[in-house]
Design brief:
The complex is a heterodimer. Chain A is α+β, with helices and mostly antiparallel strands. Chain A contains twelve helices and nine strands. In chain A, a hairpin with a 2-residue loop joins strand 6 (245-252) and strand 7. Chain B starts with a strand and ends with a strand. The chains are: A alpha+beta, B alpha+beta.
């Protein structure tokens, strides 16, 4: 058989083997068999030098063309097989996409009291207030005397207030920080005081421990209308931009004049629900009491007169609100005791 | 304070319904708790009747069949069970259709076969008194058929007011009428005490001395009434007392109550015949001196308390409660009427100490004014004459007399505007003040205002007057402004930022914040084995033993909450709390003023699966020590704080799985698994891991300064060393880091392996991943090899370690 015939035969055999190869691996075997180091076709090419000179050109050319043709066909087939094989593999990787997702990374929650407290703190930081912390175990002086409470004020009674001794008690409000703050800082002062307070009371609407935020602003020329504007800003920030507030005269020993503050009900229109029922939140009055406040009584300032608080030159306002009450109103919590029960199903609700 | 509108209208007629009136009062400073109704709701079908004929019911012994004239053309037949029903009586009749005060609607009925077209009423059925033994008898002059509400106050709304402690003048109907007039513009009628049938000057027949002095009894007044006919009060008075919340007793006692409710000033009536020696003395009690009070109890007084005595000894506790011995009785014909001005704080103390509060003491303790005593005497005098047919003896005993003259306060126009933020025209200011009894005179810069005696205690300063003007002018209409300050700067302090960052770091790790009680009980220390923790702060008047102390750790509330949630089915428990604990100060602490220290603590508790179970991860591991350590690590990482553990444990922790937490060498807390026996006290059977630190002891990190990081590549390799079990991972890492300096940038334990056969008993293999880096060049293999050799040498020489081959 001539060399040329041999080339033709090898090429045909290679093409036949190639056609039979159905996987990338089988195709690779074909490549090794026909074009590898030990295969015949490359050997023919290497043996061209030994041929008579007149045959070298034609044989060399034919062998080279056969090799190139085979390589091209092998590459083409390899490409086809790779695509088919990937398709098969992806098909085998199929999952049931309706199975549950991986669990979320655990995210905890701040307690609703803390969330509400921060929300209020941030409103007042924006209004230029610092935040002060004060002692929860207080002296009678700061809790009552310096706040102008009569010797007979009912809150002083041992039935109403927790005492450690005759002179030391658990603060009944955050107000003792009024005089403490003014002792530490000369006017002007703009400060809020969040914290735990205690009263000797335990029923459906009272817990012996709860949280308040006190506010105090003393400066030159602070007025009752400033108090109203400040609390209106607060009420709108917490309860929504549509809110109005209403001041009602009241009595507190340490403010004069004293006012209670109502916010317009955000649950109804003028005390009536959309379905015509009386609103349970504001009890049909269209207003909800949210806090007590007033202009700081001159007698309170007199306790810190030496630190620059002369009631003839500076004046101011103070307010105090219950954090739980604000949170209950805003989030529709109906039972105060939930705050201290700490059921995880309660805690995790408030994002 | 209950104010029957019907009674109020004697003194002011605002012509508005009770709810509108309540609203007006609320907006001018008188808190209205609620509006109630007393008596019948609708007057329809209630009429005056006259019993024409009464016969025994043929089939019922206790029933009578009456023919009653109720104004119709023919008598009406009514079956009545009352024993006192009799022909000729004028009675109150409810006709079919009438709605009774309890809401039931009356219908025609057959009683044992006899038709009954209505009901003859008792006093109780009309809420005039508690009397229900018989029917109510009306005055004879009434005409049958007259609507009942035209002749008797059987129906009224009642304002239930909360009178603030600064306004004792509003503890009477007339005081409230004054407020109503001021807030509605209605005319206030003359005060009921303006016409006084009594006279002044010496009073014969009784001697009264004030041994206690005027400090405790500013004024003591008395009058004597003869020919008193003791009996029932008239219906109108009973109805008013009931509506105001006082049960009628007898006309004399009812008069003292009626006067108190109207004027705000309590009174007392003595039976003259029963005052031994016809003399009274007011003195301080002796220690433990017994007095038998009206309620039949004997109470022991102390030396601060005042009593009134006669020749035979104590008869009453002054200002708090009368005595049993001189009480008026059916035989009483002469009454000594007392109205005195007691010292408010003293009465308050007595009433608290004796746990004895009365309508009288609750008024006296708010400090009434001496002038009010004579208001009471004047009204009482009129009533004793009208109601009891009495005659008043000439003269009034008066020890102490009226209070000091009226104080005049300058009220500057500018100050009103300065405090309120809006100007109020002077005329309007004047009008507001005059409607509530102040007298004003013009001054250059405002008004000179004289304070009426009944506001003497409350109004002493310009600011007090401004409050009066503000509330009557209507604070609900004030504009809203903001302070014009250029000084206000709002910001969190560094410490406050730290506290927020700390809790946020725990929330980010999936922990829920709880808020526990500051209170705890003695059993907590036992359960936690805190035997040597020192004495906690204890309350003098706790509500219960479980709440008698202040907590010294946050762990107790976390365990309580964990137990509760576990009992309710929660598997995964990841909780923390931030807040104060309370540590008594040492006696030699210079800041000791009886208050404890209140360091701000942060504690966390973990129990249950370390991560949520899932279809691909059905049995995730349970949390253990390393979960708590991980949470703590996340916390300190967020705070940018370097920290270490040391081997100290706590009695309530697993001795082999716990450590002290140190920052800058100082112990700031602990971390560990709760001792299984302690956890069992809270019925927690799974591993509970926790930590608690004193955040105040962790310094606030100052601003982070930027450090250049290398742009040359890291070189990483692993190194495993076999050491004795006694060597800690931290020791190895510390040694590797120091020996690896300066090229070693990081060393991280990534595998811990024990195998007694291959490694030897009591040995452990710890594999560390090493990261080398230089800031200024790419490291060469030979540089790193040299550094590695130094590390190996250190491990071999200092920790007796053996490097495992082939790593």
């Amino acid at each position: 058989m001539s060399i040329s015939d041999k080339i033709i035969e090898l090429q045909a055999a290679a093409e036949a083997a190639m056609a039979k190869a159905s996987t990338t691996a089988a195709l690779e075997d074909v490549r090794v068999e026909f074009l590898g180091r030990k295969a015949e076709l490359p050997n023919l090419l290497r043996g061209v030098a030994e041929l008579p000179p007149q045959e070298r050109g034609a044989v060399g050319k034919a062998a080279n063309e056969a090799r190139k043709s085979l390589e091209r066909q092998l590459d083409q087939k390899a490409g086809q097989l790779a695509v088919a094989e990937l398709d098969t593999r992806l098909e085998q990787d199929r999952v049931d996409v309706t199975l549950p997702a991986d669990p979320l990374p655990a995210i905890g929650r701040l307690h609703l009291i803390t969330q509400t407290r921060r929300e209020i703190e941030d409103v007042f930081i924006g209004l230029g207030y610092a935040i002060a912390d004060g002692p929860e175990v207080e002296t009678v002086y700061y809790n009552f005397d310096a706040l102008n409470h009569d010797a007979t004020h009912p809150a002083r009674a041992w039935t109403d207030t927790f005492y450690i001794s005759d002179d030391v008690l658990l603060r009944t409000h955050t107000s003792p920080m009024q005089v403490r703050s003014m002792e530490l800082q000369k006017p002007p002062i703009y400060v809020i005081v969040p914290g735990r307070v205690y009263r000797r009371d335990s029923d459906i609407t009272h817990t012996p421990q709860f949280h308040q935020i006190e506010g105090l602003a003393v400066d030159e020329g602070i007025t009752l209308t400033d108090l109203k504007g400040t609390l209106l800003t607060f009420a709108r920030a917490i309860f929504g931009p549509e809110r109005e507030i209403r001041l009602r005269p009241h009595f507190f020993p340490f403010t004069e004049p004293s006012v209670e503050v109502d916010v317009s009900c955000f649950n109804c229109h003028n005390g009536v629900l959309d379905n015509g029922d009386r609103c349970g939140l504001c009890k049909g009055t269209a207003w909800i009491e949210i806090l007590g406040s007033g202009m700081v009584d001159p007698n309170v300032l007199l306790h810190v007169k030496d630190n620059g608080y002369d009631p003839e030159t500076v004046q101011g306002f103070a307010f105090g609100m219950g954090i739980e009450r604000i949170a209950m109103l805003k989030h529709g919590v109906t039972d105060l005791r939930l705050f201290y029960d700490n059921d995880i199903r309660f805690l995790e609700q408030f994002a | 304070m209950r104010v029957p509108i019907e009674w109020l209208y004697d003194y002011v007629e605002p012509h508005m319904d009770a709810f509108t009136l309540a609203q007006r009062l609320a907006l001018t400073g008188t808190e209205v708790e609620r509006v109630e109704h007393h008596g019948i709701v609708s007057a329809d079908n209630f009429v005056v009747g006259q019993v024409l004929q009464r016969e025994k019911h043929p089939d019922a012994d206790r029933l009578n069949v009456c023919m009653v004239d109720i104004g119709g053309s023919a008598p009406t037949q009514i079956v009545c069970g009352a024993p006192n029903v009799a022909a000729g009586l004028k009675v109150a009749v409810a006709k079919p259709g009438a709605v009774m005060p309890d809401g039931t609607k009356l219908r025609k009925a057959k009683l044992r076969g006899m038709e009954s077209e209505g009901m003859i009423l008792s006093e109780r059925e009309l809420q005039i008194s508690d009397e229900h033994n018989g029917i109510m008898s009306l005055p004879q002059e009434l005409v049958p058929g007259t609507p009942l509400d035209e002749v008797l106050n059987v129906s009224t709304d009642v304002l239930v007011l909360e009178i603030t402690p600064n306004r004792p003048d509003c503890l009477g109907i007339y005081g409230v009428a004054r407020e109503v007039a001021a807030t509605t513009g209605a005319q206030l009628k003359a005060a009921p005490w303006e016409q006084d049938p009594g006279t002044f000057g010496d009073l014969n027949g009784i001697e009264i001395t004030l041994e206690a002095g005027h400090e405790l009894c500013q004024r003591f007044t008395a009058r004597i009434f003869d020919d008193v006919k003791l009996g029932e009060s008239p219906l109108w008075m009973k109805a008013r007392l009931m509506a105001a919340g006082q049960r009628p007793i007898s006309n004399v006692v009812d008069i003292t109550n009626y006067v108190m409710l109207l004027t705000g000033h309590p009174m007392h009536a003595f039976d003259y015949e029963r005052i031994a020696g016809a003399r009274l003395n007011v003195r301080r009690a002796h220690a433990d001196e017994p007095v038998e009070t009206l309620d039949g109890q004997t109470r022991k007084l102390d030396e601060q308390m005042l009593l009134i005595e006669d020749a035979d000894g104590p008869t009453s506790i002054a200002g708090v409660m009368g005595g049993a011995r001189s009480e008026v009785a059916l035989t009483t014909t002469t009454v000594v009427s007392e109205a005195a001005t007691w010292n408010g704080p003293n009465i308050h103390r007595t009433s608290l100490k004796l746990a004895l509060r009365s309508e009288a003491s609750s008024r006296y303790e708010k400090q009434l004014q001496p002038e009010q005593a004579l208001w009471a005497q004047a009204v009482a005098t009129k009533l004793y004459i009208e109601v009891c047919g009495a005659s008043v003896r000439p003269g009034t005993l008066d020890l102490g007399g009226p209070g000091p003259g009226a104080q005049t306060i300058r009220l500057r126009d500018s100050r009103i505007e300065g405090l309120l933020g809006v100007a109020i025209p002077r005329d309007r200011t004047r009008r507001h003040l005059e409607t509530i009894g102040f007298v004003t005179a013009d001054a250059a810069d405002g008004l000179d205002v004289s304070v009426p005696d009944f506001r003497r205690a409350d109004i002493t300063r310009e600011a007090d007057l401004i409050e009066e003007v503000a509330r009557l002018d209507g604070v609900e209409n004030l504009p809203a402004t903001l302070p014009a300050s250029r000084h206000a700067v709002g910001a969190l302090t560094a410490r406050q930022h730290q506290r927020r960052r700390a809790v946020d770091a725990l929330v980010a790790q999936g922990l829920h914040e709880i808020v526990g009680w500051s209170f705890t009980g003695p059993e907590m220390a036992q359960k936690l084995r805190l035997t040597d923790a020192g004495r906690p702060v204890s309350l003098a008047n706790p509500m219960s033993s479980e709440q008698s102390l202040l907590r010294t750790t946050l762990l107790g509330s976390l365990l309580d909450v964990a137990q509760r949630n576990r009992a309710r089915g929660a598997e995964t428990i990841r909780l923390f709390e931030a807040g104060a604990i309370y540590k008594p100060r040492q006696a030699n602490d210079p800041d000791a003023d009886g208050r404890p220290q209140e360091p701000h603590h942060l504690a966390a508790l973990l129990s249950g699966p370390a991560r949520p179970a899932n279809w691909r991860d059905q049995n995730p591991p349970q949390v253990d020590f390393f979960a708590a350590k991980g949470a703590l690590s996340g916390l300190f990482s967020a705070l940018g704080v370097e920290w270490q553990l040391s081997s100290e444990s706590q009695a309530f922790l697993h001795p082999g799985r716990s450590a002290a937490v140190r920052v800058n060498g100082e112990q700031v807390g602990w971390v560990g698994e709760i001792h299984p026996n302690v956890a069992a006290e809270w019925e927690l059977s799974q591993t509970v891991a926790a930590f608690e630190i004193n955040l105040d002891a962790v310094a606030v990190k100052s601003a982070t300064i930027y450090k250049d990081f290398a742009s040359f590549p890291d070189l990483r390799e692993d190194l495993a060393v076999v050491v004795s079990d006694a060597v800690s991972a931290e020791q190895i890492v510390a040694l590797v880091k120091s020996a690896g300096s300066p090229l070693l940038a990081g060393a991280e334990v990534f595998d811990v392996y024990r195998d007694a056969q291959r490694l030897g008993d009591g040995n452990v293999s710890i594999a560390v991943r090493l990261t080398y880096r230089a800031a200024d060049r790419t490291l060469t293999d030979s540089e790193v090899a040299a550094q590695r050799q130094r590390i190996i040498n250190a491990l071999e020489q200092q920790l007796d370690g053996k490097i495992r081959a082939g790593e």
